[in-house]
């Protein structure tokens, strides 16, 4: 099994002619065509079969391109998987992450509302100068304010449905092995990889999908009614209260566990769906019938307060999530930042969502005001609408830019500070592997030392992530200034002794920050377009989603679907079928070793007796145990070895920047698995095999680093050893 961006079946098998023996074009099992020779590096007497799953993420152009648009939702789903191994708070972690995911849906709808209802319907169309030479907007000026806003309110609903459709379309392409009925064990303990039904990626998203639709529709209804309802309009106030009540009810549902049966799911979701449709229809009808709506200059009433309150709520949730994460707990796993990976990734999802929203609103405002720069210190041109985006988006853009720049600076400092330590460690490895170096091989020795030093950079990312989280949280805390009507320039003017110069400088910095954030988002959009047109770019983008969409969706239903929901059950079925005929060795490279571990934990006991595991370039202990201690911690790896009766070998190199030993020997204290079999799992390969040039060659042996492993003699030796150990 290949890792991320694994390539074609011909490349995996190192054979020019292959046939698919099981599966389909999305994910299939391939073997060399009979009579065409054996696969490259094959051990005599053992048939080689490749599982190509890369097309699950990189196979469809539309699916891969749309994943960039769903990046904030994917990050929110990934965050909850990075929780610490303290299972006593797993439900609290899940609730907090789901609440944060609900705010992402509301933020998405509010950003579209900011373009349609606020900028176009409220701020632009009433002004002749904004409608001039724009026939696609001029006809809206003939409509009263109420019907105009009701018509434009259909756009956020269509956008919400489009995001829903992107995920649903991808799910249909990847589904195939969903259990027909939910498992009671999965409902009681959904966070164990060995529980049947863990990889079901439909039951929970189906429950959350309607809740998020209700949140999005309720946000739209409340924003629309706040703009057109008169203070003495009883009907509008009642509908507004109903919209806020719908949002509150959906928020409560996010805190409840997913019902164990489909009948209970339908019992709860049917009234919610009916209420969502009925309230949206009543709100649109009320707006369409409102003929005497006053539209004073400025923003849509209540819109800026809603944006500021939402961003403030996100900041509070992030702080609470961090406090709960770092609370005292008992765990023997070494985790990234002591388990702070969850709030860090959650902060990243909020930051990316804020960047998307700010870019959309500011770039549309820039287009509508014909390139002018309306802002805190520049007056609006005569006859042009005062197109003023919410101040909260200025703060959000500045916060995202500051977090990005300071995290980049922290990365540079961390790499420079740790360079001497990495080089010292690499020098010790080189001295041990090559005690006698000829004079002509000194330069080659230095290259190997630098390669080993660079391969350990991934172990020093902690300060970078901490810095990013702190800056993101502080940036969201600045939204409190928006709640009292203070923007960046107003704040500087109040604190400065020379308001004129400092205000001008702050305005330029603010505009520049918004443009830099916009350029980053536009770059992502260009990358999405390129992935749609170019297969090579699509494979590069899909390599990121191979890591982000590995886990089932339990937080945000609009995220890209989990490809492992098909891959793991499909592998388990294929391995069980092959095990009924003879011995099976599962060989996983890089991320494929993670799929292999998940597959073994799902195998029945009768199939396990004929299975062995060979991993190479394996990131289980180096990355996944530290990132996902609740799922792939030391205890899980020890259980994995016990299930296989320690028929497990892991090949690794010091030059590999991704893989490493599964059970590294600790400097102090007992080993993770105090059993004899654990000590025989890891097999270290010297890389390169020699520093000197072989007399029959013209260049020194290559540095293999992360690939390949299967073409070397130790790989074939491990295969033969594992085959002999299977009874």
TrEMBL record:
Q: What domain of life?
A: Bacteria
* Keywords, ordered alphabetically: Membrane, Transmembrane, Transmembrane helix
- The signal peptide here is none
Listed SUPFAM superfamilies: alpha/beta-Hydrolases (SSF53474)
Transmembrane segment boundaries: 60-80, 92-113, 149-168, 211-228, 234-256, 268-289, 309-328, 340-365, 392-417, 464-485, 505-529
Q: Does the keyword Chaperone apply?
A: no
Please identify the protein, giving its name as recorded. Integral membrane protein
């Amino acid at each position: 099994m290949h890792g991320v961006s694994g390539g074609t079946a011909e490349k995996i098998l190192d054979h020019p002619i292959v046939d698919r023996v099981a599966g389909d074009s999305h994910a299939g099992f391939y073997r060399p065509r009979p009579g065409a020779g054996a696969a490259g590096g094959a051990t005599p007497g053992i048939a080689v079969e490749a599982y190509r799953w890369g097309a699950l993420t990189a196979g469809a152009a539309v699916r891969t391109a749309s994943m960039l648009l769903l990046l904030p939702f994917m990050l929110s789903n990934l965050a909850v998987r990075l929780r610490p191994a303290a299972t006593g708070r797993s439900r609290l972690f899940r609730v907090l992450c789901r609440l944060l995911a609900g705010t992402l849906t509301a933020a998405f709808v509010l950003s579209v509302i900011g373009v349609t209802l606020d900028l176009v319907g409220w701020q632009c169309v009433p002004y002749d100068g904004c409608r001039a030479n724009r026939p696609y907007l001029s006809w809206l000026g003939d409509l009263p304010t109420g019907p105009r806003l009701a018509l434009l309110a259909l756009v956020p609903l269509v956008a919400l449905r489009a995001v829903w459709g992107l995920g649903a379309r991808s799910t249909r392409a990847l589904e195939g092995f969903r259990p027909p009925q939910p498992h009671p064990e999965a409902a009681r303990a959904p966070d164990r990889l060995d529980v049947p039904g863990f990889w079901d990626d439909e039951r929970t998203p189906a429950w959350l999908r309607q809740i998020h639709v209700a949140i999005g529709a309720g946000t739209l209804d409340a924003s629309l009614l706040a703009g057109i309802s008169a203070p003495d309009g009883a009907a509008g106030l009642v509908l507004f209260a109903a919209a806020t009540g719908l949002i509150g009810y959906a928020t409560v549902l996010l805190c409840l566990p997913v019902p164990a049966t489909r009948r209970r799911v339908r019992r709860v979701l049917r009234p919610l769906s009916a209420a969502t449709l009925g309230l949206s229809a009543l709100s649109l009808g009320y707006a369409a019938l409102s003929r005497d709506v006053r539209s004073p200059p400025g923003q849509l009433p209540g819109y800026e307060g809603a944006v500021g309150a939402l961003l403030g709520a996100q900041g509070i949730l992030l702080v609470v999530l961090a406090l709960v994460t770092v609370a005292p707990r008992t765990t023997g796993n070494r985790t990234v930042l002591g388990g702070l990976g969850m709030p860090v990734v959650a902060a990243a999802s909020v930051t990316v969502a804020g960047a998307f929203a700010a870019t959309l609103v500011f770039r549309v405002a820039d287009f509508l005001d014909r390139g002018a720069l309306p802002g805190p210190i520049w007056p609006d041109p005569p006859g042009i609408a005062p197109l003023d985006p919410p101040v909260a988006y200025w703060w959000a853009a500045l916060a995202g830019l500051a977090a990005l720049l300071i995290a980049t600076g922290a990365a540079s400092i961390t790499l420079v500070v740790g360079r001497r330590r990495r080089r010292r460690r690499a020098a010790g490895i080189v001295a041990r592997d090559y005690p006698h170096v000829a004079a002509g091989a000194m330069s080659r020795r230095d290259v190997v030392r630098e390669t080993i030093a660079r391969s350990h950079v991934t172990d020093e990312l902690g300060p970078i992530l901490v810095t990013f989280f702190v800056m993101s949280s502080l940036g969201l805390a600045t939204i409190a200034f928006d709640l009292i009507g203070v923007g960046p320039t107003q704040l500087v003017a109040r604190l400065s002794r020379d308001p004129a110069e400092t205000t001008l400088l702050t305005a330029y910095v603010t505009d520049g920050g918004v443009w830099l954030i916009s350029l980053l988002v536009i770059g992502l959009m260009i990358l999405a377009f390129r992935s749609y047109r170019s297969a090579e770019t699509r494979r590069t983008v899909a390599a990121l989603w191979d890591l982000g969409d590995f886990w089932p969706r339990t937080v945000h239903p609009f995220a890209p679907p989990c490809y492992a929901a098909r891959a793991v059950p499909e592998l388990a079925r294929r391995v069980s079928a092959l095990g009924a005929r003879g011995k099976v060795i599962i060989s996983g490279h890089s991320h494929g070793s993670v799929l292999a571990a998940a597959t073994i934990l799902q195998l029945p006991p009768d199939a396990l007796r004929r299975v062995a595991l060979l991993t190479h370039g394996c990131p289980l202990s180096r990355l996944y145990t530290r990132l996902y201690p609740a799922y792939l911690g030391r205890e899980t790896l020890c259980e994995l070895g016990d299930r296989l009766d320690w028929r497990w070998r892991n090949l690794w190199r010091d030059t590999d920047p991704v893989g490493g030993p599964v059970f590294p020997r600790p400097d102090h204290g007992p080993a993770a698995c105090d059993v004899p079999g654990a000590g025989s799992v890891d097999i270290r390969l010297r890389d390169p095999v020699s520093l000197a040039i072989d007399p029959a060659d013209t260049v020194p042996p290559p540095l293999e680093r992360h690939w390949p492993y299967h073409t070397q003699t130790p790989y074939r030796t491990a295969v033969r050893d594992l085959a002999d150990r299977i009874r």
